[in-house]
Write a structure and sequence with these properties.
mainly alpha; single chain; 2 domains; 19 helices
């Protein structure tokens, strides 16, 4: 079930009315209703995978109780290891089995040893990377004594499967979200008004920006060998805005929908394209994933390798981002994508003092825009690897930017469409810049205006959404992860 469809609109209207009209006096009944609604929402894609999310929830629910019981530290460590193993085995089988089999065969082929291929026709369950990380962090937090294991079966299962953020995040921590299932929720008009603005902005990002910019991006990437150098550069830049609008759009809708139900999810994006280095981008992009990797992977690695000095920092950074790349997809192009980001973050760490000196020596109005431009350029370069069909295609795409003529007559045939998309992006980024210190771009836009001006602005966004809406309801890019 997609947020940008009439099906979801009908589903959510039914959920919203039932939740606040008939169940508002009972937290337990609200939680049970949310659990059922979340399973309906998830089962809309493929009901067979409901058993997978149920087993993932059940195993971590029971294991956390074992960890939290009065047992020896060694026993607790065994149980948390079992939890991590179960989660990674499920994720590894459904997402990475064929990738590792194919890579293993290719490795032996280098030594002229042919192995028979035993790949399976495995369907990737939607959102498995997100809810696996969510449940795994819960048992780790219980093991670290940062959280008490819950005995509330319904609340925990509702926390894991909470439909607004189930499929593509934010990846919530139990320390933030689970406790919200225990307390009575009250309908709040002011919070609901903010939620509606956030949903509106999320739909604009997805329907107007991502889906329409994606048309041009697909035309360029699917036929990149026939494109001019300018078109290839434009395609890469537009994909940067497509994936941002798509993923941030999902997050804004998810946070807004949750807020309408009385829940507060974490902010997942904060104007990342105005960052001055790659480290800052990752602090502003997919914040729930970057902080998860920091807390559960990078920090433990850095502690383990603290005696290695600078090499330990570099090793921890590189391994974290290699795995970050692999989290995004079962292909070598994602590993390479992660490697480039690991290199960039390592560079940021070791040049921090030098860059501070440069910033003092160069006027801020010159230094800051150049830093932003260079950072965005590097980010866009890595996204070519991310978007290409394979690592080989990415290499040819990059090579073609240099070798192809800068302009060709074919560029004129799509000039109008490309200019329209550029105009949409400029409009989008202008508001993103003005709201860069807010939780979402139009959080406070229009509040000080007269009512007629404020509602005219919202009506204009609604008009653009209907004007550019594509009837096929494009899926969100991060559903495949």
């Amino acid at each position: 079930m997609l947020f940008n469809t009439g099906t979801f609109a009908i589903f959510f209207i039914i959920v919203f009315i039932s939740y606040w009209l008939f169940l508002k006096n009972s937290v337990k009944w609200q939680n049970l209703f949310l659990l059922v609604a979340s399973y309906v929402f998830y089962g809309w894609w493929d009901w067979r995978f409901l058993s997978l999310i149920f087993l993932s929830s059940l195993s971590d629910y029971l294991i956390a109780l074992k960890i939290d019981a009065p047992i020896k530290p060694k026993s607790a460590k065994i149980w948390v290891t079992i939890s991590i193993a179960i989660n990674l085995i499920m994720l590894g089988f459904f997402k990475y089995y064929n990738f590792f089999v194919d890579s293993f065969i290719d490795l032996f082929a280098l030594f002229d040893v042919e192995l028979s291929k035993r790949s399976l026709n495995i369907i990737l369950p939607v959102g498995i990377s997100f809810y696996t990380f969510q449940t795994m962090s819960y048992t780790i937090d219980v093991y670290r004594k940062q959280l008490k294991a819950t005995r509330d079966f319904v609340s925990f299962f509702a926390f894991v499967s909470f439909f607004p953020q189930l499929v593509a995040g934010p990846i919530e921590r139990a320390s933030n979200l689970l406790g919200q299932f225990y307390i009575k929720r009250q309908f709040d008009y002011e919070k609901s008004a903010i939620a509606m603005r956030q949903i509106l902005w999320g739909l604009f990002q997805k329907v107007v920006v991502a889906d329409n910019v994606g048309v041009v991006v697909n035309q360029i990437f699917d036929n990149y060998q026939q494109q001019s150098g300018f078109s290839l550069i434009l395609g890469a830049m537009l994909f940067s805005f497509q994936i941002y609008g798509d993923f941030a759009g999902y997050s804004n809708i998810a946070v807004g929908v949750a807020r309408l139900l009385g829940f507060q999810l974490m902010q997942n994006f904060q104007s990342p394209y105005f960052s001055q280095n790659i480290t800052e981008i990752w602090r502003r992009w997919h914040i729930s994933l970057s902080t998860w990797l920091r807390d559960y992977l990078y920090t433990p690695l850095a502690i383990k390798t603290r005696n290695w000095g600078s090499f330990g920092i570099a090793f921890s950074t590189m391994l974290t981002f290699l795995l970050c790349g692999l989290w995004h997809g079962a292909a070598w192009k994602f590993v390479i994508f992660g490697a480039f980001h690991g290199i960039a973050l390592t560079y940021d760490i070791f040049t921090k003092k030098t860059r501070k000196k440069w910033r003092k020596q160069i006027h801020q109005k010159i230094y800051d825009p150049i830093s932003i431009l260079l950072t965005f350029s590097y980010w866009t370069f890595t996204l070519i690897i991310f978007r290409a069909q394979s690592a080989k295609d990415a290499f040819i795409y990059l090579k073609s930017i240099i070798n192809k003529p800068l302009f060709t007559p074919d560029d004129l045939s799509l000039a109008g469409l490309k200019l329209t998309m550029v105009g949409i992006v400029v409009f989008f980024m202008a508001f993103d810049y003005m709201g860069r210190n807010k939780t979402f771009a139009i959080e406070t836009t229009g509040k000080p205006w007269p009512n007629i001006g404020r509602f005219a602005f919202y009506a204009f966004l609604v008009f653009l959404i209907f004007l550019f809406f594509q009837t096929d309801g494009d899926a969100f890019i991060y559903f495949q992860f």
